[in-house]
Amino acid sequence: MVEAALERIARLNPTLNAFTAVTAERARAKAGAIDNRPDKARLPLAGVPFAVKNLFDIEGLATVAGSKINRTRPKAPRDATLIERLEAAGAVLIGALNMGEYAYDFTGENVHDGPSRNPHDLTRMSGGSSGGSGSAVGGGLTPLALGSDTNGSIRVPSSFCGIFGLKPTYGRLTRAGSFPFVASLDHLGPFARSVRDLALSYDVMQGPDADDPACDQRDVEPTVPVLDDGLEGLRIAVAGGYFKKGAFAEALEALARVAKAANATDEIEIPEAARGRAAAYVITATEGAALHVGRLRKQAHDFDPAVRDRLIAGAMVPATLVAKAQIFRRWYREQFLTLFARYDAILAPATPCAAPMIGQQTFTLDGVELPVRPNVGIYTQPISFIGLPVVAVPVPLKPLPIGVQIIAPPWREDIVLRIAHALEQMGVVAAPKPEL
Fold first, then answer.
1. By CB neighbour count within 10 A (0-12 exposed, 13-18 middle, 19+ buried), where does 318 fall?
2. Alpha carbons 237 and 299: distance in angstroms, whole number
3. How far is Cα 130 from Cα 153, in angstroms, rounded to an integer?
């Protein structure tokens, strides 16, 4: 299994540009050790290859986080905790994946390593900032990958590349051993080509971790995904208003197909979703700037100019606006959670359109020409802002797939995975085979 993955990487990665490092020697050694284990049949992921966004610590490699500056960092002395947990279940790490610089990106275009490409159309974006993860899984280079999601960086690549992606509840999966972006918004999670693979990888990564202050689950039970219960008894609604305004025809078509299959006949309004996105931007910009202010002072010329300029702008946001954004965040979360008294899950588009062209600067949303880079995440930001669990499911439209978000209350990953699996069994959602 590992050799097959390494062969496919060698053949296709020069085209897709998904991997920035391939850990072939390590992978072969791990695979050989598993082959020789008498208990390998008990390992839930025995021999399954996986790769990680290059903001995860990998023992012996510098954690570059898509940047030029981090390449001079010392090599990581140990693996990130989620890598350790996957390998304890028998999975085999095969490499590190391309990403937007410091995770501040929605396109998958990295100025230092080049863009990761969409496996369904090489001229199009993979999405970001976990673009290499989306490209690698969508292109079949690896069955599993890990990414991060601060404002949509798992769900946008899932949508563009036609695969499944899980952004778990904030604090569900430990971030220990990963390079941060915005501590109060950062999530880590898996990509896969099927819901079973997604659920299995998620399940072995669960658990509290004292090394991540957000991952304190003393009062939270682990979620064991039960996939085969179907949709019976579930109340599912569709997010309207903000979540449909400006959406392209393909996004609305995908949402309609999923809603019909899920028997989601009620359309609801998410209160103040646009303001939720605005507040998410304020918090992202200011927390991100605070993390990088030292690098900005000493090495501003080594940043991607688009990332640098947004971080500098974030450093100048008045503290009064940050305080208002945090106050609004608490109110917005309370208002959103009241909807789950009536519904078990809510559906929304993952992106406003299918994957734009690499290098495309603008598109038109609701009659207004807007920059692509910050605006493909308009439907994901109001959700990650308050830490809700989401599965992005791929709808295999032609010529390009596009994703739909399935959103549930905190700590109910079991619900979103159950719904996603039911839709997959119906054939409504599926990861299309790339033509590579």
1. exposed
2. 48
3. 5
Cβ–Cβ under 8 Å, residues 5 and 93: no
SS3 state of residue 46: coil
Over range 128-153, report the average pLDDT: 98
Q: Domain for residue 124, yes or no? A: yes
Active-site positions read: 53, 129, 153
Go through 169-193 and write b for each residue having 16 or more CB atoms within 10 A of its CB, e for each that does not: bbbbbbbbbbbbbbeebbbbbbbbb
| 206-228 confidence digits (pLDDT tens) | 999 999 999 988 778 777 778 99
Instruction: Tell me, yes or no, whether 435 lies in a domain.
Output: no
SS3 category, 134: helix
Residue 246 sits in a domain whose CATH number is 3.90.1300.10
Query: Shortest CA distance to 201 belongs to which of 225, 185, 222, 176?
Result: 225
Domain that holds residue 240: 2-426
Quote the DSSP letter at residue 178.
Answer: B
- DSSP H helical segments within 206-272, as ranges? 249-261
Identify whether 190 is part of a domain.
yes
The span from the CA of 249 to the CA of 222, in Å, is 39
* Residue 314 counted as domain residue: yes
Threshold 0.70, pTM exceeds? yes
State the total domains in the chain.
1
Rounded to the nearest 10°, the torsion over CA 305, 311, 317, 323 is 150
